[in-house]
């Protein structure tokens, strides 16, 4: 038996729930499919000491916001799960947990067909709210590591005790790689860290959290279309810092002073050794330059607005590599943690809305296929699109498009409940 809904939302994380809140407020018939439970990604893909990098005051969803006693703090993983569970309970979305969507296609009649673990559904419109982090990205070079070395992706890492005793090589210095390297370092584990090109940012500057300054400066309201290289902006690594222990900088140079071994990018794995690119100094300098550039922007904002803010000395590098360390013997390495990100996996979406890299082509989440939308992508519209901070605005935007599409369907003689269109939609110009 096939069940029909006006709108199907795929994904029950913060994006899917935010979408459901707006649809419910507008009285739109819909269902939210979640393959596991609310908060699944936060339960299953975070290590034990994980904390948000964004402060609690940025945790706001439609009709709901953080109300605890530590707005400038950083929620730990279990607290994020509780936050989402309470959000769902606050408005009772039509949520179907434990239902995976295996296939989405457009039928000859113009409907969307969803083949799920609970049967077949059709929908007039669909919102894909599954985020961008689908399949762990592990480079093929991992296949060349000796059998004695344990390997885990950052999504599988939980704590230092999970790994066999001995030195650990962490590959990648985005937010996850740097925080996992710190976690191991604080536990007294010998750490080798392959440093990539991710930027960093100071946790606090001139009396406030850096993100609070950027929020006041309107940085999070800038649309991706304001940048000349929008496609590249969407692919940039996030700045590394941490919310652990109340929040602090992550300074890889200080880790090196304390005994962590730093290398350039991992280049190859050969019998008995790993080799690295000669770019460690450049990568560290580039990360520092980004952090100092953010401080320059804050200084300018303070000066232009005559804000009374305390002064603060600028960062001075505490360590510099004196020589290039091009290789590491693998004989004593016990484990490798691959902090190398994720691949998008939209193979289940059998609608031609993707570019050559597999990225959905869209304008603020509205694709070229009428009635198909994406929500919760990094930089979908602003910096906060893939986060608690901005997904509500994107969900509201799509809700307006969905209701406009519904009105058009009704006007043109489409049976909304039966889902039997009488004509083909020409394009999306009417909804621009």
From TrEMBL:
Q: Which UniProt keywords apply?
A: Oxidoreductase
Q: Name one GO molecular function term.
A: monooxygenase activity
Does the record bear Oxidoreductase in its keywords? Answer: yes
Q: Does the keyword Oxidoreductase apply?
A: yes
The protein here is known as: FAD-dependent oxidoreductase
Phylogenetic classification of the source organism: Bacteria, Bacillati, Actinomycetota, Actinomycetes, Micromonosporales
């Amino acid at each position: 038996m096939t069940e029909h809904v006006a709108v199907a939302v795929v994904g029950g994380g913060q994006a899917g729930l935010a979408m459901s809140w707006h649809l419910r407020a507008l009285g739109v018939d819909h269902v939210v499919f979640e393959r596991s439970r609310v908060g699944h990604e936060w339960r299953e893909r975070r290590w034990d000491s994980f904390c948000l990098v964004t402060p609690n005051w940025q945790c706001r969803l439609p009709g709901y916001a953080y109300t605890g006693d530590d707005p400038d703090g950083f929620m730990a993983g279990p607290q994020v799960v509780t936050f989402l569970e309470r959000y769902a309970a606050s408005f009772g979305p039509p949520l179907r947990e434990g239902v995976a969507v295996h296939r989405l296609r457009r039928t000859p009649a113009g409907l969307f067909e969803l083949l799920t673990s609970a049967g077949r559904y059709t929908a007039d419109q669909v919102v894909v709210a599954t985020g961008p982090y689908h399949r762990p990205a592990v480079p093929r070079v991992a296949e060349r590591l000796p059998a004695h070395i344990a390997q885990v992706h950052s999504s599988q890492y939980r704590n230092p005790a999970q790994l066999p005793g001995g030195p650990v090589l962490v590959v990648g210095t985005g937010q996850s790689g740097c925080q996992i390297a710190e976690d191991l370092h604080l536990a007294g584990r010998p750490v080798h860290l392959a440093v990539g090109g991710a930027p960093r940012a100071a946790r606090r500057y001139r009396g406030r959290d850096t993100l609070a300054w950027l929020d006041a400066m309107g940085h999070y309201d800038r649309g991706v279309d304001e940048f000349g290289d929008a496609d590249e902006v969407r692919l940039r690594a996030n700045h590394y810092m941490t919310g652990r222990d109340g929040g602090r900088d992550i300074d890889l140079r200080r880790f090196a002073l304390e005994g962590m071994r730093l290398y350039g990018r991992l280049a190859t794995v050969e019998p008995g050794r790993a080799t690295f690119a000669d770019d460690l100094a450049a990568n560290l300098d580039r990360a520092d330059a980004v952090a100092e550039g953010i401080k320059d922007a804050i200084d300018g904002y303070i000066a232009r607005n005559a804000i009374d803010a305390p002064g603060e000395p600028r960062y001075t590098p505490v360590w510099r590599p004196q020589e290039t360390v091009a290789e590491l013997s693998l004989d004593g390495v016990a484990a490798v943690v691959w902090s190398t990100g994720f691949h998008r996996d939209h193979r289940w979406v059998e609608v031609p809305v993707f570019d050559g890299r597999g990225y959905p082509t869209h304008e603020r989440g509205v694709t070229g296929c009428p009635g198909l939308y994406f929500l919760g992508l990094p930089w979908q519209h602003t910096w906060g699109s893939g986060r608690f901070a901005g997904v509500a605005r994107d969900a509201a935007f799509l809700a307006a498009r969905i209701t406009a599409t519904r009105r058009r369907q009704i006007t043109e003689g489409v049976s909304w409940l039966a889902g039997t269109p009488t004509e083909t939609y020409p394009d999306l110009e009417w909804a621009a």
